[in-house]
Amino acid sequence: MPLQRHILVHCPNNIELQNLTHVSEFHLMRFSDDPELQPTIFGLFLSMYLVTVLGNLLIILAVSCDSRLHTPMYFFLCNLSLADICFISTTVPKMIVNIQTNSKEIVYVGCLTQMSFLILFGCMDGMLLTVMAYDRFVAVCHPLHYSLIMSPRLCGFLVFLSLFVSLVDSQAHNLIALQIIYFKDVAISNFFCDPAQLLNLACFDTLINNIVMYFVGAISGLLPISGIFFSYYKIVFSILRIPSSGGRYKAFSTCGSHLSVICLFYGTAIGVYLGSAVSHSPRNIAVASLMYTVVTPMLNPFIYSLRNKDIKRAVKRLHSRIV
Predict the structure, then answer these.
(1) pLDDT tens readout for residues 138-164
(2) CA-CA distance, 199 to 146, in Å (whole number)?
């Protein structure tokens, strides 16, 4: 059935159901409607996007060009950097285009596509952080068997499994969104197509869809968090059994960057959900979402490059080759 350029501002009754289809576009929220602030906001988000892409590409290039970094930990780090590039690319380019064109519309198909990729790469981030926690668990708790356990085949399988789970999660949310045909409004209270926002705009009772969506979200969220918590529970107890303080510091330092990224990623993600539950201000929810979808991917390369001596040396060697 073709999409009509018809915007529903109320839910259709039984008579209207025969003649109306779903909306053709949604309106995304702007951070400011002040025309004088638009160039500043445009420059800010463009800069953040470029820094994120270039920073993560730099890590990928540094690891790829340095044979000493061809280890499981850095293999997972490269995949995390790639997921971060894709994650931020689902939201910021559209926002930049809308600011430049003085528009806030996103077509229905584009909204569902953006939502699907946002969930896909967001879930991929969480799954890869879990895999990296398992890698640190093996490195700290079973150092003598590390190379045997973390074989190239297992590493490839773990990345594939992360992608598969993320794809299932993304398509489950997409199928739920496709069940919504009629909307009571087209204004999304965020700067991207948030699945929770789409459900809130639905005309009819979406209790079952809400239950399914939050159940799927809980599985894709709680399972990684549980895996990370269990891994670091074992890591902490293993480190505490090391007799020397220098040995304990060395063992824990291998987990510092990863632990910082975990706190940043899940801290901002949990903040979004808590903020949306406590505060009903769209502006506050959008700011919290900004931290989760934009700021976190931008800071990840800095965290790994500033706290990791191997990455620093690899970047210096890459720079010397280019120069």
Answers:
(1) 988 888 888 899 999 999 999 999 999
(2) 46
